[in-house]
Design a protein that fits this description.
With 437 residues, the protein is of the alpha/beta class. A 6-stranded antiparallel sheet has the order 7-6-16-15-12-13. A hairpin with a 2-residue loop joins strand 6 and strand 7. Helix 9 crosses helix 10, helix 10 packs across helix 11 and helix 10 packs parallel to helix 12. The two termini are 50 Å apart.
């Protein structure tokens, strides 16, 4: 093994969640603080989400290792359970043998246990990892358990951790009461390029490197390119790179070694494999003439609050959907094959729903046909498309040149056009999208 070559005492990049190797980036430190606050306060849930491999489980293990001795912890990691099985698992964590109990007995036992622990001056904490797999029925049971209280305080503290799908589940109409009880919510992002360097050096230092620079800066840049800053992917690539360097008896990992490890793993650049709308290479397709006529409007596609693409509208039809033959392809299971279209001429652009599964929404209302206004935000599945009318912009430019006064239309002056209901109208919640048929 490579430990002797690099002067290390133990493997630095194991995938097991070892708290000793935890590197606290700003995001991880903040998420840990949120977890710790659960012990201080008794009201509400704490929800921590993150992509696969972002370090949630390691963070939980570190938090639990440091927790005070007066806290009784139930940690549940297997979450594909029925409501009865969940309650039984919870009681088993508390030291009971509940597997012959009926539901009424399970609930009574849990309630009595929580009240007894409170009377004894102990706090009870429930930590559920992989919570995105919990059914709505189990989540409702957890909400009801959170309501067990004495005359002064709630008796159960709860942390839910999981992948981003957990947030989607908590937004469903069936769980609105649970969502209202969420006091703190945090999403773990990938490491930045700077954090990645510190992360790698930290793990090597814990493993016994003694401050020696084992990975060059070029190697770390390549690791970031192929891992995207996701801790689990960093560990996999670093470990493979150390093995590759060991095979050729190099005691320093440079970019060439990392690229060799990438070939062994058969990886591509991180952005290329996570892009939800990959660029399609033409394959024996006939040449398409460039679009003619002036640009009448523009569309700005956003996902998770970040603009990812811009499109031009000219005279004619512009189709949006999931498959490659659309003018705007959104590769998402919540978008229909041909979801909607926008027909434009010199006067206006008209949006039409093409009988999609999840519909098209503007200002929180589902529309079948809508004459688009400058600044409208079109909600398609879990994506947003902002419509900017170039005709309006040209009118503004003409008005400015003739009068010297710039008139900004209300839609552009609004802080979040298209997202706000008309004055006096109650907001309408959009239903959670479901996979297209």
């Amino acid at each position: 093994m490579y430990l002797e070559l690099f002067g290390l005492k133990e493997l630095p990049f194991r995938l097991s969640p070892d708290p000793q190797f935890l590197y606290l980036s700003k995001h991880h430190a903040r998420a840990k603080t949120y977890m710790e606050s659960t012990v201080w306060f008794t009201d509400g849930f704490v929800v921590v989400t993150g992509e696969i491999g972002s370090g949630k489980t390691t963070l939980i293990e570190t938090f639990l290792r440091e927790i005070d001795k007066d806290v009784v912890v139930a940690q549940i990691n297997q979450t594909q359970l029925s409501p009865i099985a969940f309650l039984q698992t919870l009681l088993a964590q508390f030291g009971f043998a509940p597997f012959k109990m009926k539901k009424a007995e399970l609930l009574a036992t849990i309630s009595n246990f929580l009240v007894e622990q409170y009377a004894a001056g102990r706090k009870v904490l429930l930590v559920v990892d992989e919570a995105q797999n919990l059914s709505n029925r189990v989540l409702e049971e957890i909400r009801l358990l959170s309501g067990i209280e004495t005359t002064k305080d709630k008796t159960l503290r709860i942390i839910l951790a999981g992948q981003p799908e957990l947030n989607d589940k908590l937004r469903s109409p069936e769980l609105v009461q649970l969502a209202q009880r969420i006091r703190l919510r945090f999403h773990l992002t990938a490491l930045s390029r700077t954090d990645l360097s510190a992360y790698v050096r930290h793990r090597l230092e814990v493993a016994g490197s003694g401050g020696r620079e084992i990975f060059t800066e070029d190697a770390l840049s390549a690791i970031y390119t192929y891992s995207g800053g996701v801790p689990r992917l960093i560990n996999t690539l670093c470990d493979t790179a150390l093995m590759s360097a060991f095979a050729v008896e190099k005691n320093v990992v440079d970019r060439a070694v990392v690229e060799g490890a990438v070939e062994e793993l058969q990886w591509v650049e991180f952005m290329a494999r996570t892009n939800r709308m990959p660029v399609l290479e033409p394959r024996n397709l006939p040449a398409v003439p460039p679009p003619a006529g002036p640009v009448l409007a523009r569309l700005y596609l956003a996902t998770e609050g970040r603009t990812v693409a811009e499109y031009e509208l000219r005279t004619g039809r512009f189709v949006i959907g999931r498959t490659y033959d659309n003018d705007l392809q959104i590769d998402s299971k919540f978008v229909s094959r041909h979801h909607c279209q926008i027909s434009s001429d010199t006067e206006e652009s008209v949006l039409e729903d093409l009988n999609s599964t999840n519909g098209v929404y503007i200002r929180s209302r589902r529309v079948r046909r809508h004459v688009l206004k400058d600044g409208d935000v079109i909600v398609i599945g879990r994506h947003e498309v902002m419509y900017v009318d170039e005709r309006v912009m040209r009118t503004i430019a003409t008005s400015t040149s003739s009068t010297g006064t710039l008139r900004v239309p209300p839609s552009l002056a609004a802080a979040a056009p298209g997202d706000v209901a008309e004055p006096g109208e109650p907001p309408i919640l959009l239903p959670s999208p479901r996979p297209d048929r």
